[in-house]
Amino acid sequence: MATFLYRIGRLAFRRRHFVALIWVALLTLAGVGAASAPAAGNSSFSIPGTEAQKAFDLLEQRFPGMSADGATARVVFKAPDGEKMTGAGNKATVKKTVKELQSGSEVVSVADPYIGHAVSKDGTIAYASVKYKVSGMELEDSSRDALKEAAQHARDAGLTVEIGGDALQTAPETGSSEVIGLAVAAVVLVITFGSLLAAGFPLLTAIIGVGIGVSTITALANALDLGTTTSTLASMIGLAVGIDYALFIVSRYRSELAEGREREEAAGRAVGTAGSAVVFAGLTVVIALVGLSVVNIPMLTKMGVAAAGTVAIAVLIALTLIPALLGYAGRRIKPAGEKSKLLGGGRPKSAKKQARPNMGTRWASFVVRRPVAVLLLGVIGLGAAAVPAASLELGLPDDGSQPVSTTQRRAYDLLSDGFGPGFNGPLMVVVDAKDSDHPKAAFTKVRDDIKGLKDVVTVTPAAPNKAGDTATITVIPDSKPSSTNTEDLVHAIRGKGADITSATDAKVLVTGSTAMNIDVSQRLNDALLPYLALVVGLAFLLLIVVFRSILVPLKAALGFLLSVMAALGAVVAVFQWGWLSDLMNVEETGPVMSMMPIFMVGVVFGLAMDYEVFLVTRMREAYVHGEKPAQAVVTGFKHGARVVTAAAIIMIAVFSGFIGSSESMVKMIGFGLAVAVFFDAFIVRMAIVPAVLALLGKKAWWLPKWLDRALPNVDVEGEGLRTQSSADGKDADPDEEKELVRA
Question: How would you classify residue 548: left for phi > 0, otherwise alpha for psi between -120 and 50, otherwise beta?
């Protein structure tokens, strides 16, 4: 592996014009494809195999034109103080608004509140339900604008009007967050390299990689039904790993220059050693992202595969375009320890400063001297942070978790005041009586059985289809949609289904947005352990090949699990318990988003293994080249700690930028990922890992002989490079180069 990548690095350095032209052509091709591709709507959301999805599919068949999964809006009206919604003037305003809403091209129906009994008991609040043909994410902007204009006209007439439902649902904008992350990354890179040019390479190549990946996703979005969230995830992950991988190789290149090697030779060795770490780190990220397919949620699978493709592009760019750019830069890239003249380079250093070891060396030396104390402190600290995770409650956000400044949240509160908290999460019960001899009797029995359940406020009469073999029944719970009581009610209704089927041959299915959220949460919960086993298991096998050790990969996996549990504990403490909620601007606490644990595992595992592979391969390299285990740990930190620290700070900055979002889901993801990277990089990789390796000594690199013979020798540490004829700085054999080009 190291020898092959070494040749790739030297070839890219020498044939830099050709390499640069290829990547510019790919970027141009992807850009043209994205610009000429037909506009794609947002990805359809379906959960195959769940009861809620089966009910939606059945409604599409038995109620043609009903658009069961179409967007809904509730336009909520509140009368001025001292007035009633039944007053003549207010009633006329509502009637006019209903008529205006019916004119939309995507509108299926609008329910008049005075005909549908949608006026509160005290007469102060009423609502009109609007049903659309397409989902909230697919709704045209013109339909949303028409909805807002109709509400504004009613406000102008003196009513308080708010809009709830998913019709106003839009993809969160993250552009400013990415800009903040790039700005922080630029500052950190300049400090790390002491050179504006060297700092610019990781940013440039990361942007090129993300540009190719996102443009390709955009070009294929219509054909593959990819939504905006797919490109958002690919952009975030691609930017993260793209900067990391380029940072690793540029840093190793400068280290090779500091050892006196010629620039082409240094580029080859940088790609051969750090590039090997990049390849295997990239593989762990790809495994984690592609592994999301085990959840069996098509949208999540597409997001994972698309992001994995962007990561693969980042790896290829780091291995080829970075050495090509280093070739263009020439002597303007300084060896490690030297700064550019613009940043104070060229000044003579005092003998005391030259002799002083860097901070990574000093820290590693301290850990090696006090491994037990550092290990206990790190494990106890992360264990304490993980304690709140034992109280983790999962759910999906609804309008009740929106900021109070939004119209969705105000509509939610008005409906809760006027009709009860459960009114915001009605359950739709679908009764399939096609095989029943007495469909009407089956409909009546279902309604009567549901009435007798706990936590039920209202059960509407059955609404059958034209054929009379299927009916819908709306159930209003007594609790808010995200409560455990509502979840228990859904399970109770489904539990009644078996008895009803045996008595009437009718099938009972529960659906609606609340039931769908419950099913999604359950699907994610059930998939978490298999996903963990798949991702950690495959990565464990991969790391055995990389490190040729059993204990080092085991330590890496256990350390990752510890950091993820601690990060989940922090998320629970802030977003569920309300700790530091004012500082984080968390207006409403509640269940943690169901997707959070599995999403955190996938993203953080990939980034954590980046740091693990890069840091520990330097230790492995030093050990293989003859250093004692303790000294190898110090050497690994001497060369790798600064780079890993810079990479972690960049990632924390990128993710922290999302904490300022008004969307609670985006805020939670940003906070969770930032905390997880902090825990994993600075406590697990920088403290626990060297402490464990110091305690294990030579045992850390133990591998059974039979397994050693069976495993392929990938030579990540670059031992094979010592036998290269170019080790003395001579140019590569031209015939060898021609063979590589042909290959």
Answer: left
CA torsion sign for 302, 304, 307, 309 is negative
Q: List the beta bridge partners of residue 511.
A: 428
Structure tokens given for 653: 């900055």
DSSP string, 235-301: HHHHHHHHHHHHHHHHHHHHHHHHTT--HHHHHHHHHHHHHHHHHHHHHHHHHHHHGGGGG--HHHH
Q: What is the mean pLDDT of the chain?
A: 81
Cross-strand bridge partners of residue 428: 474, 511
Alpha-carbon distance of 567 to 600, in angstroms, equals 9
pLDDT in tens, 655-685: 777 777 666 677 788 888 889 989 988 999 8
Please check whether residue 253 is in contact with residue 270, taking contact to mean a CB–CB distance below 8 angstroms: yes
In the predicted model, is pLDDT for residue 732 greater than 80? no
Contact call for residues 572 and 392 (beta carbons, < 8 A): yes
β-strands 125-132, 394-395 pairing: unpaired
The arithmetic mean of pLDDT across residues 552-574, rounded, is 89
Reading the block at residue 127, the tokens are 């609502």
CA distance 53 to 70: 13
Does an H or E element contain 431, and which? Answer: strand 427-432
What is the residue type of 7? R
In the predicted model, is pLDDT for residue 349 greater than 70?
A: no
